[in-house]
């Protein structure tokens, strides 16, 4: 309720003409503030790495950097409240991408700062393009619009298309797969799998291949008549994890939540196929543990870590508990769907950016801090904190890590970000997500067939979009 009330204030209390002038809210380019205050997340966005970097910046510049961290829900409430009050208390704030359409009028666009500092100093093209465009590039008066797609970030093209840069990406999460490498390397398993499926037991490239492997590993390992090893995990609980799980399958099949006009289309044939495929792993093929309809990312990590599954999907590098005898972990990119020889992949991804409060009195200094915190050299330093970095050079640096497991994860993480699919850019994202969660759960629990459930969900979402003014 508090978050909703804050959001309401954001809409009703915003005016282009009642904010402080640039002269009132900004130190000059040559004037160094004594302190900068940063509002940031906790472990969700790698606070340990950011605090470490902030201390180094403080030592280099003499500017005191105060980083206040909050867990996700509290942070969202705090961000919305501070901006709604037009408070100048915080200069730099952590922004989860779905928040941008709600708060964009309260953010300072960074484009002019980037140009003044010369784009080459920021090294824009070192950011993973897809993550940067999804996280940072929005149109102020139409934040629902997707930016132009580009493999190399072109600032002039961004500006000429009517978009601005509103934050700099500092941490990115994407759906990846952790797997029992020890089971895949076992000679007996390799021989048995090849005999059964007439191909090598290897990292799957498609959902069909993934299912074959999941079926192969779902078994009774101690001959007590009960299945004690399952092929994979899913996140079946009515929860945000459920929504992004389904969205990843949907993207694999070439579908999406909305069309270009923000009309819900997840109930089309691609959506039905995606949901039926997702549900079949649970109800038909039974390759998931029996408690899967209660799982979110936390339960998935626990189940994988205990060695109960051969493969598991999540947004961080899951590891096996040392108690799992002979256990060895590996990682691979979320599989896709073969479309005429081309594998279409669409793992869900989302990023945190650092943005400047419109009401900060230290905007230039805030930009310089944001540039530093997201700079190539600083991001390379984040690797020791296992931060999900956003720059290509940081992923190149990860190739030299001494830990082979961490090195493998970074390779998979970087590859996944380059093909990831972000969230819809809407002000009522939470409501839409919950509506889809409900119908997905209705199907998974056997209350409705896939088409009926999705049609009802699309109708509900269409109503929500009209209520939100779309």
Automatic annotation (TrEMBL):
<protein>
    <submittedName>
        <fullName>Extracellular solute-binding protein</fullName>
    </submittedName>
</protein>
<dbReference type="InterPro" id="IPR006059">
    <property type="entry name" value="SBP"/>
</dbReference>
<keyword id="KW-0732">Signal</keyword>
<dbReference type="InterPro" id="IPR050490">
    <property type="entry name" value="Bact_solute-bd_prot1"/>
</dbReference>
<dbReference type="Pfam" id="PF01547">
    <property type="entry name" value="SBP_bac_1"/>
</dbReference>
<comment type="similarity">
    <text>Belongs to the bacterial solute-binding protein 1 family.</text>
</comment>
<keyword id="KW-0813">Transport</keyword>
């Amino acid at each position: 309720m508090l978050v909703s009330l804050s959001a309401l204030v954001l809409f009703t209390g915003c005016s282009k003409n009642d904010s402080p002038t640039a002269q009132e809210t900004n130190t000059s380019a040559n004037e160094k503030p004594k302190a900068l205050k940063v509002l940031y997340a906790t472990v969700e966005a790698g606070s340990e790495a950011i605090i470490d970097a902030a201390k180094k910046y403080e030592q280099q510049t003499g500017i005191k950097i105060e980083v206040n961290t909050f867990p996700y829900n509290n942070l969202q409430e705090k961000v919305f409240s501070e901006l709604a009050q037009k408070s100048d208390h915080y200069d730099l704030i952590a922004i989860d991408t779905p928040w941008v359409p709600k708060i964009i009028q309260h953010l300072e666009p960074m484009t002019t700062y980037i140009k003044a500092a010369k784009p080459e100093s920021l090294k824009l093209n070192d950011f993973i393009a897809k993550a940067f465009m999804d996280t940072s590039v929005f149109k102020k008066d139409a934040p629902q619009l997707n930016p132009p797609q580009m493999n190399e970030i072109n600032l002039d093209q961004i500006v000429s298309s009517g978009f601005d840069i509103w934050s700099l990406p500092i941490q990115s999460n994407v759906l990846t797969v952790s797997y029992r490498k020890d089971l895949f390397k076992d000679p007996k398993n390799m021989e048995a799998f090849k005999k059964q499926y007439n191909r090598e037991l290897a990292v799957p490239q498609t959902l069909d291949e993934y299912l074959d492997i999941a079926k192969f590993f779902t078994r009774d390992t101690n001959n007590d008549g009960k299945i004690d090893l399952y092929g994979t995990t899913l996140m079946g609980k009515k929860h945000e994890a459920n929504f992004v799980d389904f969205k990843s399958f949907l993207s694999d099949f070439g579908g999406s939540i909305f069309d270009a006009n923000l009309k819900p289309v997840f109930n089309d044939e691609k959506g039905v196929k995606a949901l039926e495929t997702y549900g079949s792993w649970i109800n038909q093929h039974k390759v998931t543990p029996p408690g899967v309809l209660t799982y979110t990312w936390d339960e998935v990590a626990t189940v994988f870590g205990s060695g109960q599954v051969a493969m598991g999907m999540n947004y961080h590098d899951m590891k096996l508990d040392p108690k799992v005898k002979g256990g060895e972990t590996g990682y691979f990119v979320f599989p896709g769907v073969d479309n005429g020889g081309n594998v279409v992949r669409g793992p869900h991804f989302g990023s945190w950016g650092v943005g400047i409060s419109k009401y900060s009195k230290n905007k230039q200094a805030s930009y310089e801090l944001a540039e530093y915190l997201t700079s190539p050299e600083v991001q390379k330093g984040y690797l020791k904190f296992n931060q999900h970095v956003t720059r290509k050079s940081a992923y190149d640096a990860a190739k030299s890590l001494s830990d082979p497991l961490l090195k493998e994860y970074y390779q998979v993480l970087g590859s996944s970000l380059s093909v990831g699919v972000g969230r819809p850019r809407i002000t009522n994202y939470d409501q839409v997500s919950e509506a889809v969660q409900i119908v997905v759960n209705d199907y998974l629990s056997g209350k409705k067939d896939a088409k009926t459930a999705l049609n009802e969900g699309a109708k509900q979402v269409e109503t929500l979009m009209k209520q939100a003014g779309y």
